[in-house]
Design brief:
The complex is a heterodimer of chains A (316) and B (190). Chain A is an alpha/beta fold and 316 residues long. Helix content of chain A is 36%, strand content 16%. Chain A is built from ten helices and eleven strands. Chain A is globular. Chain B starts with 15 loop residues before the first strand and ends with a strand. Chain B is globular and about 45 Å long. In chain B, strand 4, helix 3 and strand 5 form a beta-alpha-beta unit. In chain B, helix 1 packs across helix 2. Chain B has 190 residues and is an alpha/beta fold. Chain B has a single domain, classed as 3-Layer(aba) Sandwich (Rossmann fold). Chain B has a five-stranded parallel β-sheet with strand order 3-2-4-5-6. Classes of the chains: A alpha/beta (316), B alpha/beta (190). Chains A and B meet through helix 1 of A and loops of B.
Amino acid sequence: MIGGERHLLSMADLDRDDIEQLMTLTDSFAEVGERSIPKVPALRGKTIAWLFYEDSTRTRLSFETAAKRLSADTMNFNVSSSSVNKGESLRDTVETITAMGVDGIVVRHRAAGAPHRVAEWVDASVINAGDGWHQHPTQSLLDLYTAREHLGDLDGKHIAIVGDIKHSRVARSNALAFATMGAEVTLVAPKTLLPTHLEGWPVTVTHNLDEVVDDLDICYLLRMQLERQTDAVVPSLREFHTEFGLDVRRADRLGDALIMHPGPMNRGVEIAGEVADRPNAVITEQVANGVSVRMAVLFLLLGSGLDIVDGKRVAA
Amino acid sequence: MAERERGLAAPQSGQFQVRTQVMSDDDVSRAIRRMAHEILERNHGADDVVIIGMQTGGVDLAHRLAADISMIEEVETGSVPVGTLDATMHRDDFGLRPVMPEAATKMPADPTGKVIVLVDDVLYTGRTVRAALDAIHSYGRPRAIQLAVMVDRGHRELPIRPDYVGKNLPTRKDEIVDVNADGVDLGDIT
């Protein structure tokens, strides 16, 4: 179960069986969302704290909705109006929060590895909601769930992850996640938007989107992360769109292949405005599935009643 | 098998050993037929009746019950709606033992105004039924909920009683009742 761990920090901690199990569990929670009263008492009495050191709307709202549907209490921590501005360290903040008694901490931080550090300090379960350029495991799980709903088993399916790979934790998480499920992963980006070291990534790389666009099952577009880019990595956004954007012409060549995007979209940059509204663009489905997947993760870590022995979850 | 008897619950662990068969396959079929008649008698026909099988032990029984009702009423098979329900998320023993949803819930359209017949294989403490009553109310407000079980083995911990019973079977708490494709077995965990 989740690699026997009590935290969810990286897709690297999950093997194929763990993911399959989570997908099955997600089905149960997707059904809860369809009820006229979409709420179950599974996490009654549990408290979850949000520790978001970075902007987020959809991930935060998605986790919040998931927690509420499970009847958990949530503690909001707003960095901009907190003691962090008075110079409090991450460790002190975490210890203050845990002193109030929390069962789960959902962490987003601009520094890669921050959730791993938090996990070392606390007894609560820690869920990584995005750390720097490193990982965003719940995004990967919801992407896998969405892809499987349309394509079934992902074994042998071909996915291209296109755009700003270098600054994207979603790319790192998803390359691993889709490869673990047996899919063939191709990264498509200009050299300046690829990480300098790709050794050990289970992927192939190309600099030409037109080369692969005809035989894809999934075209996964990434947002240009202008806020993370320190220097000019592309000559202009218009040129990026011409070379690597999913315009109408390329979208036609995709056929029925799924068009996915983690959001928020920059229409006209990585994806043409009209393309994002096509029936094979499942971007809003991804958002809807995000709630179910996060319910499954929260339930598994906080509510399933599996005991923690030496940091591993085992049946009591 | 009732949830206590499945692998998840671990009050006892070990191998299930059959001591006696208390109902044969034919006995089970006859009991289902009788319960189908009782359901029709009590509800003056099959209008508005929705059969809901508890995951996982009640699902097969629910389908057989619905098929018998359709046959007796001489209506097309499938005209009595059948659903399935996994009430795990509404259980009261979170934290006391591992709890995992086992199979999908498929409730037929809005149950408001319908008569729901909840079907399970074994009625024991009544806690699963309580969880199911809770779960059903998050789908709507049925006119009535009735309970049909193949075996009532006693030892209730809540004020819950069945409306239709295949067999009343007095048991000790350490015994195990197993409803399977060949009938009903009574045995122990050794």
